[in-house]
Write a structure and sequence with these properties.
The structure holds two protein chains of two kinds. By secondary structure, chain A is mostly helical. Chain A contains six helices and three strands; from the N terminus they run ααβαβαβαα. A three-stranded parallel beta sheet of chain A has the order 1-2-3. In chain A, helix 1 packs across helix 6 and helix 2 runs parallel beside helix 3. Chain A is globular. In chain A, 31% of the residues are buried. In chain B, strands 1, 2, 3, 4, 5, 6 and 7 form a seven-stranded antiparallel beta sheet that branches. In chain B, a hairpin with a 5-residue loop joins strand 16 and strand 17. The radius of gyration of chain B is 75 Å and the shape is elongated. By secondary structure, chain B is α+β, with helices and mostly antiparallel strands. Classes of the chains: A mainly alpha, B alpha+beta. At the A-B interface, helix 1 of A face helix 20 of B.
Chain lengths: 129, 922
Amino acid sequence: VEDNEADAFLIEEAIKMANLPVFLHVARNGEQATQFFDRADRSQDAPCPAVVILDINLPRKPGFEVLRHLRASKRCHDAHVIVVSTSNSPAERGQMADLGANDYFQKPSEFHNFMKLGDLVRSALDGHK
Amino acid sequence: MTAAGNMSALSDFVAGGDLKDRVFRDMVEALPVAIYTTDAEGRLTWFNNAAVRLSGRVPQLGTDRWCIAWKIFLPDGAPLPHDRCSMAAALRGEEIPNGIEFIGERPDGTRFWFSPCPAVVRDSEDRIVGGINLLVDITDRKKAGTEAAEQFRAIVETTPECVKIIARDGTLLFMNQPGLTMVGAKRPEDVIGANIYKLIAPEHRARFETMNERVCRGEKAAFEFDIIGLQGIRRQMETHAAPLHQTGGVTVQLALTRDVTQRKRAERAAQLLGAIVDSSDDAIVSKNLDGIITTWNAAAERLFGYTADEAVGQSVTMLIPEDRPDEEPRILARLRRGERVDHFETIRRRKDGTLVDVSLTISPVKDASGTVVGASKIGRDISERKRAERAIQALNQQLTVDLAAMTRMQQLSTRMMQAGDFPELLRETLSSAIAIADADMGNIQLLEDGVLRIAAHQGLDKQFLDFFQTVRPGEAVSGTVLDRYSRVIVEDIASSPIFAGKPSLGLMLGAGIRAVHSTPLVSRGGQVLGVLSMHYRVPHRPAERDLRLLDILARQTADLIERKRAETALLASEARFRQLADTMPQMVWAAQPDGFIDYYNERWYDFTGCDRYLFGDQSWEQTLDPEDLPRVRRAYYDAIESGEPYNIEYRLWDRREQRMRWFVGRALPVRDTRGRVVKWFGTCTDIDEQKRVEEDLRRANQDLEQFAFSASHDLQEPLRSIKIYSELLTTRYGDQLDGDARKFIGYVCGGATRMETLVRDLLAYTQTTKPDGSIELTAAGEALEYARTALAGVITESEARITADRLPTLPVHPTHLQQLFQNLVGNAVKYRTLGRVPEIHVTAEPLKGHWMFSVSDNGIGIDPAYKETIFGLFKRLHTNDEYSGTGIGLAICQRIVERYHGRIWVESEPGRGSTFRFTLPG
């Protein structure tokens, strides 16, 4: 879930570069994300996420609300959540961890560092299986 | 011829033959004495005519035994059997005493008294073979004795006293009727024949027995004893006893006994009375109606000094003082009327002429017929009592005087406590003092500017007042008091060294003063405030008591003066205070100790528009912001209660601007010398502007921090995108770009990196003010090590040598210490002198309560002109080309240090190096 197109691209790049066998769905704001979860709850055919990469500063619905919604979802509640954020604020980290976030990834300013997000997604998928 | 000789001749005669000799027989027959003989068994063998005449019968020879008498009785009348008669006894070989007497009875009943003279006849072998007896008729003699006895009986029966005869063994043989009455016997048989000893009181019994025996041995005796009669009544007896020889040689006691019970009782009463009279502490004197003394006891001697010999026979008037001539006649007149004089208190004169207070009780003495014949007088010495009475009276008078003085002082002190005209109070005090000290004149002087000035006076003339208008220490009596710091007493001015040879002597005497004493009026603080002087017209030594009372009065007066001065001072200071307060730009108020506000200055009325007559502890409440009211009220009354000053901020209604304004209210208690709050003074200072600036500043700071925080976050994101995509552009499309394009992309990237640093530093700057919760202890050495690690790149590059002393542990957040070291060490490395190995040394030295850290380098140094500027935000001395930087590092350092109330500064010599110093709490 990422509103910033530039960052969404970088996340896609990281997953691509990590060569992971996944479908990537991108929600551009909080509302799209919760609707995605609700769809999964309503229909068995709808996709249910294994890993959710969640930005905190989102339009419409902030990250913590999306996370809360996810954890309340019937089918998606056990998804592995990686919080991504520009800030390294301990308060923010703590709040998300309390709501059930599994990992926290501070967006780096270097391309190769950003690509390390792919490794994090891989180990999340490994853990989820 | 004795009887014994006769008997012997008779015996011989009888033994010698059968009385055949007629002549002898006839002769014997003719003897007027009855004679008879018996055989050994007592059988009558012979008798003469006289025997027939005496016995009144013809004795029967061979039949009668032992005696010829028809019947025989003992003298007491008891019958005596014939075989117990003296003849029978003699035949049995018993000795028969001479002179024993018996009574014989004839057959016709007549009786005769006889005295037997039996003798036994023995044979040659000394065996009793018979007896011969002569019976001498003693009836005539006995008759004569009986007459005497009759006479005796007559006497005995008529005497009122007890006549008794007691046998040696105590048997009462005889007692007359009065005697019987005395012992309580109704009939003679009750006691006669019984032992008398049992009637004698037990304690006298042994003595009585001894007496009885002695009398029965022939002595006469007179003695007293008690009897306890048959009816159990004790009586006292006095007896005169004599031996009474009875026929037969028996001696008994004849006693004449008198009942002396009454007499003894009277004697005892008299003795008792005498003892009482003699031992009495009261003088007891009796006199006859002519006033002549008849008795005089020991106490009378002690009281009046005359002995009994001297007094008895004299007239009682010798005891009466001349100034009471009619006293005795009046007493005598009353006595003659039979009246008694009770507790009559008067004065009598002793032998030595001194007078004595006496209390007299005089009773008439009457004879048996009730006629007054004299008087008994009981006198008691009441001098002691009189003295005590006089002492009590004197004491009472003294107490009355004291009470009056005390009452007066009490009233005075009450008056003093009330507000009043001070000179008038002093005059009253003086007048009281004069009354108490019994003085004639007096004055009170007050000590002002080192001299005594008369403040109140009484009875002193103008000349005196003029002369002593002011008195300096050492002058006159009151001035001497100042010197000595204690009371001065001059009993006589004429002989006092204080006045000797001084003009004041003449003046004093001229004013009619002979004595004076002056008492200092000393404040509670020990300061002499004035002098109280008492003057007398005659030489006078003041009584201790008067001086004590004056001491009390002096103390009260000193209090009065002190209070008066304090009031005056207070009034003056209050006036000064109001004058000052009214010109003050602050609002000022004053309150009484209980919090009642009794003054507001002009500024208060000006600001609040309050009623000028509105006072009291709630007078400010309407002006106060209702939100602040409970808090202010609590603070106000807490202060009043505790006496502690307060300092509180609140809002008051500004009627001009129609809004609340902030004020700081302060109140201070004013205490007297004893520490009691006497006044509260308070101010209300307008701090509205200050408050608003503070508020604005706080808000600005908050806004700034909020801005800086969000800016740093929000700014970082696009920068990150610029950087990453510039990088991506270079790596992925580098070969499609020409040199310029690559250079431009490099600028974009460099700018973004610098911007990123700037934003990060700005974030760090804003975060230093964020509260952190509890502060842990941080080891400065570790923080330095952390900074060194963070700076590892530049340090290695510059080959800088970083050394440190032993660094302390202190209560500062670790991040803050790290930031400090990172910035300061980083700067030291950054601003190094080219061609010189940077040497950086860190030290810490303890100061009072905190530490001073120093970071010294050998770098380029800082121009002193900029030593303040460098700590400003974004302030830089160099271009980015020379030294890269954001201009935030030192600002962060300053912010951190100031957060801990420390200070940071720099000491530098350009070209030689700089030392940054900062202080942190220890």
